[in-house]
Structures are given as C-alpha cells and as structure tokens.
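Here's what a typical entry looks like (6-bladed beta-propeller protein):
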Amino acid sequence: MYNNTNYLYFLVLLILQLGTVTNGSSQPTINVIDAYAKKELIPMSDLVESVSYVVLESDSLRCGPANRVYANDSLIFVISFRQIAVFERSTGKFLRTIGSLGKGPNEFSSTISSMPFDDQMDIIRAKGWDYSSLEYNSLGSLNKKVNPKKISLGSIACLNESIYVTSPSKYGYEKESRLVLFDSNDKIIRKLPRHQKQEDYTTKIVGYKGDEAWFYKLKNELFFKETFNDTLWGITPNSIYPRYIFELGKLQPPKELGYTYDFKKLRNFIEISNLFESPELLFFTIKHHKLSFFAIYDKTKKSLRICDNADDSLFGLKNDIDNSFPFLPFSITTNNDLVGFIEAYELIEWKKNNPDLARKLPQKLKKVREYDNPIVVIATLKE
C-alpha cells in the first residue's frame, strides 16, 4: 500500500525545491535567450578529435521515415516511427529488426522519442497497447511488458534495476501526478504531484504530445526535462532536484500550451528537446519557428553556444575535421562518442551543391544512392 508519510515528505521536499527555483537562488542558469541571439558557426574541431562514417546496408531493409540513431560498442540502432533496426557498427551490416508494428505477440503500437535505448540496461523500448511499454533486448527478444494498473504511461525510463519512472499522460489515469515511481512488479512506490493545479482545458485541446518529459542518463544518474517547464531535473528514489534552469525569457512556452498542445502557437516559443550529456558538456536541440538549432553547454566554463546553420538545408556543427557535410549529433554512447546521421538524399543534395568538397569524400560515401539507408556519423569527443 502507498505510504502517505513518504508521499507527504516527497511533496514538502518538492515544494521547497520549487521555491528555490522560483526565487532564483543557487541553481545554475543557462542563458538560452542571449546565446540564441548570438548563434554562430561552431567547428567540429572545437570538441571532436576524429570522425568516422558507417554506410548502413540497404538491400535487406530500408529504414525510415523519421529516423533516430543510437549506438553501443558493437551495434547501431536505427529507430523510425514504425520500425527498430539493428546494424553492425563496424561494417554497417543489417542484423535484425526488433519487434514490429501490429497487435500480435511481441508487437508494438509505435516507437518512442524519449529514451528508447538504454545501453546500461540493454533495453530497447517501444509503446505497447493500452498505455503499456514493451522492453526488448538488443538481440530482439521481448523481455517484459510494463503495464502498471491505472497509470497512463507517457515517457518512461528505468531509474535502476528495480525502479521505473514515468511521466503520466495529463488526460489519463494519474493525470494529477507529474511523475510516478513503480517497481519491477508494476507496484506504485511513490507519486510526485504536479506543482500547479490542473485546470480544465479539455474543450481547448487541439493536439497531443505523447513524450512531454525527455528522460536521459549520464552514467548511473537519470535526468528529465519537461517541454513546459524551465528546469532540468535529476531523479533519485526519494526526490527530484534541480540541476539547471533554462532562461528563455518571453520565449518560454506558457503553461496553457502544456494542456491544449496547440502546436501552431508553440512554434512561437522555444522548445528544448533531445537532451544528452557527457561529463563536460550538455547537448540539446532548440526548436523555434519550425527551425532547429544544436546547442552545447560547457559545464566547466558555464557557457552556452548555439549553432547557426552551417548549410542552407543542413544544420549542426561545421565539419572542419574532413571538410564534408555538417554534423548533427543525435545521441551519445556510454564511451562518449557522439552519434549522428545524414539521410542518403541529403548527402546526394550536398554533393551536388559542393562538387569540389564532394570529390574529397571517402570512396564509400561517393557510392551512396538516393534511396539508401542513412549514413551514420560517429565522432570521438576530445578528452
């Protein structure tokens, strides 16, 4: 049974933390609004020492659309809306798919955006039906179906081997809870209430955002950032704690949009997503007016740099390592290799627009066809 004493303790602790944030005390602030006004071309060599390319096999399976790419020491995972594909990192050889779209055994309803791959736990996660979550391993086996009763699972992550954390849907079970912690037997351990009273916006809903909280890990620590909150939080079994506050000024999305999901209005504000982190750097993506910009926060220097688009059609770091196309990191490995990709058609277009540089590309990139699978880019961070 849920422990009311723990719940009250957790609530009081949260109120104290939020009071600290509201009063603007000692929590580090990342001044996004100033850096956004001073976007710059950022060379890869500022943070990367080497880069390599993996051309994924295309004859056995075609990936996409809406690809996201992750990697570990030996494998590459390409996750699209309806598909999870696994390739060999050293050769790009296609190995297997994980699960499949459908309502049959081991099948999922969709993939997810927030932390679909947990290398430490060897979990590849997808959405099941009826608000469940499916956990596969890298060999493609379904290890577990996570389906706690009366929780409309939103974004979900493993805090450790025995505790899960989810950010429930605002319009399902546990809508009054900001986070819910539950164990491996789907038993609720703790609930974290929303710090603001839920208002009734049901007549104003114009869209839906399934993964409002973005979870990610650094080593053994779990963090999350919500679209409509200005704070990056750390999570422990007993509390959450603020790490950074993102200063967005008038471009901070208003609370109401967190309930109506009016994406046309949201475009007028800055949305921060796709966060990941190395011991020295925090990376994230800024979306504003349908445009995306890559951001790098140096935790030691306490400085933020935001990439201006290095190319009219591509955005990311200016590739001065081998003078090829811009590099947009999408994820990071546990060994601190940045992982990104470029779609084959984007590479073809870049080669047309940059014929002199295209002639200097590695031979394997010159052979890429327009409808081939993405080319994965792996960059080693400087120590």
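The chain has one domain: 29-381.

More examples are in the samples folder.
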